[in-house]
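Posting here for the record, re: iron/sulfur cluster.
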Amino acid sequence: MKKEYIIPIFVPHLGCPHTCIFCNQKEISGQEKQVTPKQVKETIEYYLKNFKDDSKYVEVAFFGGSFTGIEEETQNSLLEAVQEYIQNGKVASIRISTRPDYINKEILKRLKKYHVKTIELGVQSANDYILAKCQRGHTFEDVKKASKLIHWHGFILGHQMMVGLPESTKLDEVNTAKALIALKPKIVRIYPVLVLKNTPLAKEYELGEYMPLTVEQAVERSKEIMQLFNKAKIQVIRIGLQNTEEISDPNLEGSQVIAGPYHPAFRQLVESSMWYDEIVARIKQYNVKVMQVTIQANPENINNIIGHKKENILKLKEIYDVDVIIKPDETIKKGKFEIAIEKTYEDILEEVKK
Ligand code: SF4
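Prediction output follows.
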């Protein structure tokens, strides 16, 4: 399969009638203008010029949450702007993200006409109580209906879910992941909740009514649901919000984040933590006190095995007193590793005796 290049175009939902408590759309609506077809073309041209590899699969992605909720005329003009690039083969397809209650047969037929291939639904939770608490304005039944319609019309289905929503427990999130797996999405995004400025959630946070997850808690929760999606062979294409000027360290000027599990390398934290668990489980299988091991893995996995700021290596030393030697090996399949004991406690005793 060809590797994908994405050309991202952010489409703000100006005048969105909803008030999802974590969303700062109302705030930015006053400052942002709707993207124009001209800007869409300029963005595509810019990206096409900068792609190094012409043979890759190129997709234009209209991000922003509720593409099919904006005025139909605007939607069509934006989709129309991409058509010449689809016709000349420079762009292969279009992806949009939207709310589950903004999907119906007519909308899907129109999107099909414009070569939209992937539709991502903002689900957030499968628990209706939590959806209502977050003022999402739709239920999980809407997600089910929309997902089925999207499949029936031959689109690729994507889901986006959140961890750490108000009153959401780890079990709610595991149940959401399981409910989504049953709807057979091809791709999923997992977003830990961040408290953004000027949102209803920020008010709850300031009043002490909402307590965001810590980075560690968000990693643990994301890891658990990521494992479920991995097992179901559903690709998790993003964990954590994209870093931008607004979504950045709360201490930086311009950051819209007040609190919550912000981390610039959140996905790496989750994946490294999964590697750590696997390595520990493998070491524990040896019925001896292991002091030093060599881990061989594909070069692409080495960073995650070592962990952010060498966290895994340091933890293995601190908690299990194990030294780790890492050896990249291209012959090992991505996602797999080989481990060999270099030294046990017995070996060290022998060395001392000599
Ligand atoms: S997240 Fe909610 S409030 Fe924000 S744009 Fe989407 S539907 Fe509107």
